[in-house]
């Protein structure tokens, strides 16, 4: 049985923890609104970009001399995985979920005897992966000192990916990030960006009658200009989704922590009051029995 | 009223403009072009320059550093990673962009196409200054 003093100390320590988690929750909530807004504002760009590329490729007659970014190198040996995580912890399963999904992907590739290359964006992902997959990590990028991640930062990563691709360092590139659904749900996602995958549009294509476009300059040149841009755009989208997810995840995690702390304080207080009452009763009995014996 | 078509200008950060307009002039990669209603479906990309948008009563100008344009079924879509309304463009920022572009131009790492684009950028910005 802990002494009254111990209990009192524990209660006050839990209370101050609760204060911290509450403050973090509030900060996350404020940041979330902003992040969510920019994630939603950023969505049209990447969606329309995809649409244009889709329109371009469907109206393309011969795919033989299409850019490599679109159809791939023809090989399937080396996979590049870009893992996007946060720089900060204390946000529930946010970082671990992405890493878990990535690890499944790694194992699958390693089993098939494929080469693996990893780029981690954000320090937390690197921390989680370095023990098991440290030798595959070719680069770690972090924007810890940047307050707001803009398109410029996404372009930096996009350029790096493109450089590697031009040097024929990999055949396939997959992006891992958290898709923001709402405050409570964020789903980790793996999105293949090279070669550009037409995701589930087969039925749509059939419905869509062939569109005739005028191209200026010609189709190939437009594609060559557009595809690298699309890489940066997808990275940027992942950044935005990630930022919103991180704050959402942190908010829920801290909300739970605050509630748990509240429960704990309640329990401890009951405990404390009981033992206080017990000691008072004990003292009274001692006094009374002492008086009676006189 | 039937002469209008829809225009959407989108940057990675947000939708900059979405409205019905009468005509739009664009700095196309192979030359200036103006788009009116019922233009043929078109995909092209931009070189640095000024986009002029003419609505019913309004007239707006944007500076775009590049981007992609799609026109389909009377919907004009402009995607650009750097696009600014001229109203928001400040002199010192313009100056900074010119200097940056000039510096880039002097480097020999760029190929002809990139140099061509940079030259256009400087040109356009210089004109804006006056």
How would you characterize the overall build of this protein?
- The complex is a heterodimer of chains A (294) and B (130).
- Chain A has 294 residues and is of the alpha/beta class.
- Chain A folds into two domains: 4-22 and 255-293, Helix Hairpins (Orthogonal Bundle); 39-253, 3-Layer(aba) Sandwich (Pyruvate Kinase, Chain: A, domain 1), CATH 3.40.1380.
- Chain A is built from seven helices and six strands.
- Chain A has helices at 4-58, 68-71, 94-111, 123-133, 151-166, 202-207, 219-293; strands at 78-84, 115-121, 137-141, 172-180, 186-194, 214-216.
- Chain A has a five-stranded mixed sheet with strand order 3-2-1-4-5, with helices on both faces.
- In chain A, α3 runs parallel beside α4 (123-133) and α5 crosses α7.
- The radius of gyration of chain A is 28 Å and the shape is elongated.
- By secondary structure, chain B is of the alpha+beta class.
- Chain B folds into two domains: 5-85, ATP Synthase, domain 1, CATH 2.60.15; 90-129, no CATH class.
- In chain B, 26% of the residues lie in helices and 42% in strands.
- Chain B is built from two helices and ten strands, in the order ββββββββββαα.
- Chain B has helices at 91-106, 112-129; strands spanning 5-10, 15-21, 23-28, 31-35, 42-46, 49-54, 59-64, 67-72, 75-79, 83-85.
- In chain B, the strands form two sheets. Chain B has a five-stranded mixed sheet, with no helix packed on it.
- In chain B, β1 (5-10) and β2 form a beta hairpin.
- In chain B, α1 (91-106) packs antiparallel against α2.
- The mean pLDDT of chain B is 84.
- Chains A and B meet through α1, α5, β6 and α7 of A and β5 and β8 of B.
- β6 (214-216) of chain A pairs parallel with β5 (42-46) of chain B.
